[in-house]
Amino acid sequence: MTLLRDEHLAAAFDHAARSYDTLVAANPGYHAHLRRSARRLGLPRGGEGLRVLDLGCGTGASTAALAEVLPSAGITAVDASAGMLERAAAKTWPPNVTFTHAPAERLAEAGVTGPFDAVFAAYLFRNVTDPDAVLRTVRDLLTPGGRLAVHEYTLGGRRTDRAVWTLVCRGVVQPVATLLGDGDLYRHLWRSVVEFDTAGRFADRLRANGFDSVRRLPLPGWQTGITHTFTGRRPTTTETAR
């Protein structure tokens, strides 16, 4: 199959929204890993006085991680799938969390404007048509010195990383998803990872799109070598000028 993109991918997520939380709950460490990546933003004082953008929030798992780690931050959560966003917004949230329906490529049209002190993006960049353009948009939304954390399936480059990913997808995830009527989306999931950047290449992509202090950080458990946190920073004005 070809990769799903744009409105076709959003429609597939719309359909999968009803069972998405059940599937991810079966993934050991899924929510703990998101919280770990949120902590890796390194924001002080629980985010007090800061604005944080949750880009590609899905049904709200990443939003919940941010709300737990940064309870005092103003969190704007955005997703391109109306179905996923409806599921997220229906949950109980503190008043500092808001939701907006918008693709990552058209944030300004939906009224999502900066500056943000931090952007968090989980499982997003391998799903967009032009990740470089979205990274440049994110950079421009950040205040100088603002921070980015990307939580993403990015294989480490070893044969065993791809083998484990393929075994989990084809042996567990895809059969269950097919029974639920979402086989196309989860076949896309497998392929989108094996065709996307390795972890090293994605770190280089961040640097090429204007981020500095880029770090590539592993996650524990079965996802070691499969899922990583990437952190970076928009340079300050004086650093950009140098």
UniProtKB/TrEMBL annotation:
<dbReference type="InterPro" id="IPR029063">
    <property type="entry name" value="SAM-dependent_MTases_sf"/>
</dbReference>
<protein>
    <submittedName>
        <fullName>Class I SAM-dependent methyltransferase</fullName>
        <ecNumber>2.1.1.-</ecNumber>
    </submittedName>
</protein>
<keyword id="KW-0808">Transferase</keyword>
<keyword id="KW-0489">Methyltransferase</keyword>
<dbReference type="Pfam" id="PF01209">
    <property type="entry name" value="Ubie_methyltran"/>
</dbReference>
<dbReference type="GO" id="GO:0008168">
    <property type="term" value="F:methyltransferase activity"/>
</dbReference>
<dbReference type="GO" id="GO:0032259">
    <property type="term" value="P:methylation"/>
</dbReference>
